[in-house]
Amino acid sequence: xxxxxxxxxxxxxxxxxxxxxxxxxxxxxxxxxxxxxxxxxxxxxxxxxxxxxxxxxxxxxxxxxxxxxxxxxxxxxxxxxxxxxxxxxxxxxxxxxxxxxxxxxxxxxxxxxxxxxxxxxxxxxxxxxxxxxxxxxxxxxxxxxxxxxxxxxxxxxxxxx
Amino acid sequence: xxxxxxxxxxxxxxxxxxxxxxxxxxxxxxxxxxxxxxxxxxxxxxxxxxxxxxxxxxxxxxxxxxxxxxxxxxxxxxxxxxxxxxxxxxxxxxxxxxxxxxxxxxxxxxxxxxxxxxxxxxxxxxxxxxxxxxxxxxxxxxxxxxxxxxxxxxxxxxxxxxxxxxxxxx
Lengths: 161, 170
What we know:
CATH superfamily of chain B: Response regulator
Oligomer: heterodimer
Strand order of the largest sheet of chain B: 3-2-4-5-6
Number of strands of chain B: 9
Structural class of chain A: mainly alpha
Strand content of chain A: under 5%
Distance between the termini of chain B: 34 Å
CATH architecture of chain B: 3-Layer(aba) Sandwich
Structural class of chain B: alpha/beta
Helix content of chain A: over 70%
Shape of chain B: globular
Number of helices of chain A: 8
Order of helices and strands of chain A: EHEHHHHHHH
CATH topology of chain B: Rossmann fold
Helix content of chain B: 25-40%
Number of domains of chain B: 1
Strand content of chain B: 15-25%
Radius of gyration of chain A: 22 Å
Number of helices of chain B: 5
């Protein structure tokens, strides 16, 4: 046996023993209950979304106020857009998940490039604000689709340069 | 069709976002899991693991000052780790392949993309219980075996032919 060979360690399955053979609710029931519980918190969601957008709008103002833009402000925009990407759908705004994903990706790929192109960051944020102002809870219509397409195209073009 | 009961499990959720605490709690409660604690950061989570001994950890990736992967590495390889073998589900909005591989190589058991799907979280928990993978300890890696399945048609060389087998002291 080689001393440097990987060691395979069999860990006792204590969790299987702990939960035993008891049955729980079926998966459809779990999903229904979870959706009902999440719906029951929906009165909080507008406030949560507003918090994220406030963070992003404030950070954007700070980024625009200095040359070069404050990296900390750009980092805050990246983090809040990441949160919106992760939570937009759950909070009833699937478009925020999409645009959050795009904005986070744009900044994450090349933060220096993003800082040089604040206009494109501002366009993403403007779109986020519009979605919430107009309370667009679904996937939006052709206008929103076109805007998303244009934002994605602009980000891809910059990434190539 | 009824499912296995998860209500006996204790879970530690590590996320610096309070909203996510509420979302994850609502979903876990619907699975009848009530024994849940929350930590805002990796250091607190480490303390919680030491004092409370949860069965499973669900951790976000994007946290500060230590991120989720730092936390996983501390749990798996830290000299003072309370439980290097604890199953860890990593929650993440990072779904690019290189990020997934990075998480796998840090030693996470399961990765769950945000936005959280209720069915996906349930299936990750069940997978940890019903299909636990052995741990691998090598010079470069410590964590659950990164091979998820054995291909019966694989006819290439067995790269792990020379391995040492042991039972954990856990």
